[in-house]
TrEMBL record:
Native species: Cyprinus carpio (Common carp)
PROSITE patterns from the UniProt entry: RINT1_TIP20
Family affiliation: Belongs to the RINT1 family.
A single BP term in Gene Ontology: endoplasmic reticulum to Golgi vesicle-mediated transport
GO cellular component: Dsl1/NZR complex
Pfam families in UniProt: RINT1_TIP1
Protein name listed in UniProt: RAD50-interacting protein 1
InterPro entries registered for this protein in UniProt: EXOC6PINT-1/Sec15/Tip20_C_dom2, RINT1_Tip20
């Protein structure tokens, strides 16, 4: 193959010049490639010399060599073209075959993967079926064992013939047992059979319980389980249970949603009818057999189960009828009360109240209680005699003078308390307590609204009745705060009360925990504020009237009244009569309208205000001669003080300023001058310690003056006109 073009450089001046050729031959002996040193010209020269030689005469061989080389070059080109066209086709065919093989391989791998997934899913589904079949087989095995056990029990029942023995004793006692029921002729034999059968049944149950305990998983800590009924009691309950379901299920007329008392009363009747038989016949057998159960309680438990199932079925159907629901709650509460009291059912066992504590039922109960209470409060406040007391004509009974509305309201709260007192759950009890507190606060707001309507006439009977109502409610709540039941609720409120009664501060929690505070403390504070406000309005009204009537008395000529020696007998100042009559009338009137605690607060507050009024507006406002001072002392000690002497033994203690002022004003001239000099000297020597001279306070104490300060005494001494110039 010729890959280099012939290069001929002819030098005309040199005959030794040879053409330079670059030749490559393949497949012939003339193939020559460049030397390893890369001198391509030397290789061409060597080829020419070999074929032609160095003789110029041999140049005629060049054309032949050229033709030969051209032919070989052409052949080589054809070979190259053939090879270059055939090799890509074979390579492409090989690549196509490889690609097809790869696709087939991937397809096979995908099919294998899908087959593996399908097989895995099939295995998983088969495992579920296997587990399900295993459970079914286990259940079938359990059922088979139970069936064999029941068949064994049925056979034992056939052999014992226990129910027939009970029939001989006239069991069950549907109606109260009477003396007309004659005992069986061979009573001794039946007693022996009864004891034998009961003992055997107890032994059978004991062995069954042991087997069950081994199979059962242990209960969680703190989880109590009610023990199953003894086997003899279960058999004795069968006829009663059958009769109960006959009458109180299905379409029987006795199965009436509006008459829950029918089946509840029937259960109580059966309990009462059977009590003697259980105590006299069954209990001794149980005791001798070593069974630590109470036969009568066991029967009550069984009968109670019937009532519980019936209530659980009926109660949700009555949630949308308030009247029927309230009736059901009343009957359930009454049933629980008779169950615990009449039949002495232990409180360790649940009764029927837990059915009312189910969340939906309990919230309905609270809602109905609130609704009915509000309706009753509206009715009692709008009643004609709401603000009068039904005991007003009976003095011994009507000490608190509570109006009918307040007394009825507290009775309503007391009834609510009795309804939730027996609930076994402190949280439920606290929920009802929160409802009661809400109702009390609502009633207080209503009292405040009515009081504001009557505030223009604070001396009216209705205003005083409102005040008595607030005091009555406060008194009752204070008594409840010391009640054992509410003290127990107080302890429960410390632990769980925040969820129901709202957040409690650290101080309030501490007071509740130490029993220093009360559950009603906040309400009592609000009621006390209302009572104090109303009492203040009442005192203001009386004092306005008294001050108006006392104006002539305050402006009397105290400086020019005749002395005591010039009068045959002392008498009340004529100008004081309107004031004294006004005081007497108000005291008598309010004594009749206010309860005793409120009236005591009233007259003591009135005395305090009168003391300040007479001292400031009468005594300090005037000057007194000897006759004026004596007259003032007579009016106070012989007329004003005795008005309050009906309510206490020493009324003058409530008028200390007036009493001591009268004492200073009526001092003889000599002692008054000495007292005046001593007070002046003490004032001049103020700050200088003098152990020889007594203090002004001690000197005043010797005279009976304890309330007035020395400066006040000096002012009073200066009001004396008889020796004013001398001093």
């Amino acid at each position: 193959m010729l890959i280099g073009a012939p290069v001929m450089e002819h030098n005309k001046h040199s005959s030794n010049a040879l053409p330079h050729l670059t030749l490559v031959r393949t497949g012939s002996s003339t193939f020559q490639s460049p030397s390893e040193d890369g001198n391509f010209t030397d290789d061409v020269v060597a080829l020419v010399q070999k074929e032609i030689g160095g003789d110029l005469k041999s140049l005629k061989k060049v054309s032949g060599l050229l033709e030969q080389l051209t032919l070989e070059n052409k052949q080589l080109e054809e070979q190259v073209l053939t090879v270059s066209s055939s090799v890509p086709l074979r390579v492409s065919a090989a690549l196509s075959v490889a690609q097809e093989s790869r696709v087939k391989l991937e397809s096979l791998l995908e099919k294998e993967r899908l087959l593996s997934n399908t097989l895995q899913q099939h295995l998983q589904g088969a495992q579920v079926w296997a587990d399900s079949i295993g459970q079914v087989l286990a259940q079938l095995d359990t059922l088979e064992r139970h069936m064999k056990y029941l068949q064994c029990l049925a056979r034992i029942e056939e052999l014992s013939d226990f129910e027939e023995v009970l029939t001989q004793f006239h069991w069950p006692f549907i109606s109260p047992p009477t003396q007309t029921l004659s005992p069986p002729a061979n009573v001794q034999e039946f007693n022996s059979q009864l004891e034998l059968l009961v003992s055997q049944l107890l032994s059978l149950q004991t062995s069954d319980d042991l087997i069950s305990e081994k199979r059962e998983t242990p209960s969680r800590p703190g989880q109590s389980q009610t023990p199953p009924l003894s086997l003899p009691i279960q058999i004795m309950l069968l006829p009663l249970s059958k009769r109960f379901r006959y009458h109180f299920t299905g379409n029987r007329q006795t199965n009436n949603l509006s008459k829950p008392e029918w089946f509840l009363t029937q259960v109580l009747i059966w309990m009462g009818n059977s009590s003697n038989f259980m105590d006299e016949k069954i209990q001794p057998i149980l005791d001798r057999a070593g069974a630590k159960v109470n036969a009568r309680v066991e029967l009550c438990r069984g009968l109670l189960t019937l009532a519980q199932e019936k209530l659980a079925q009926d109660t949700p159907r009555l949630l949308y009828d308030d009247a029927l629901f309230c009736h059901l709650v009343d009957e359930v509460l009454q049933f629980e009360k008779e169950l615990r009291s009449t039949h002495s059912y232990p409180r360790a066992y649940p009764g029927v109240l837990h059915i009312l504590l189910e969340e939906t039922v309990f919230q309905k109960w609270l809602s109905v209680e609130r609704k009915m209470a509000v309706e009753k409060v509206d009715a009692m406040l709008s009643a004609e005699g709401a603000w009068s007391s039904q005991y007003k004509d009976i003095t011994d009974v009507d000490e608190l003078k509570a109006p009918d509305c307040a007394e009825t309201f507290m009775t309503l709260l007391l009834v609510i308390t009795e309804r939730y007192r027996a609930l076994p759950c402190p949280r439920a009890q606290l929920s009802f307590l929160a409802l009661q507190k809400e109702l009390v606060d609502d009633f207080r707001i209503r009292l405040t609204q009515v009081m504001k309507e009557e505030s223009r006439q604070p001396l009216s009977p209705r205003y005083c009745a409102i005040l008595n109502a607030a005091n009555y409610i406060s008194t009752v709540l204070s008594d409840w705060g010391d009640n054992v039941f509410f003290l127990q609720l107080q302890q429960a409120a410390v632990s769980v009360g925040e969820e129901i009664l709202g957040p409690l501060g650290a101080t309030e929690t501490g007071r509740l925990a130490s029993l220093e505070g009360s559950l009603f403390e906040a309400l009592l504070a609000l009621l006390e504020r209302l009572r104090g406000d109303m009492l203040g309005r009442l005192l203001d009204a009386v004092m306005r009237d008294v001050k108006e009537k006392a104006q002539p008395y305050c402006k009397d000529r105290w400086i020019s009244l005749p002395s005591q020696s010039d009068q045959a007998t002392m008498s009340l100042s004529s100008s004081a009569c309107p004031m004294m009559l006004c005081l007497r009338d108000h005291l008598l009137q309010l004594q009749q309208m206010l309860c005793l605690p409120l009236f005591q607060m009233f007259w003591q507050g009135l005395a305090e205000r009168l003391n300040s009024f007479i001292y400031e507006d009468l005594i300090l406002y005037n000057h007194f001669n000897e006759g004026g001072a004596a007259q003032l002392q007579y009016d106070m000690t012989r007329n004003l003080f005795p008005l309050f002497g009906h309510y206490c033994k020493r009324p003058e203690n409530f008028f200390k300023h007036v009493k001591e002022a009268c004492l200073i004003l009526t001092l003889k001239v000599g002692p008054a001058l000495l007292l005046c000099d001593m007070l002046k000297q003490s004032e001049e020597e103020e700050g200088i310690l003098n152990h020889q001279q007594p203090s002004p306070e001690s000197a005043l104490n010797e005279l009976g003056v304890y309330k007035l300060a020395p400066s006040d005494v000096q002012i009073l001494l200066n009001l004396r006109t008889a020796w004013l110039n001398q001093s």
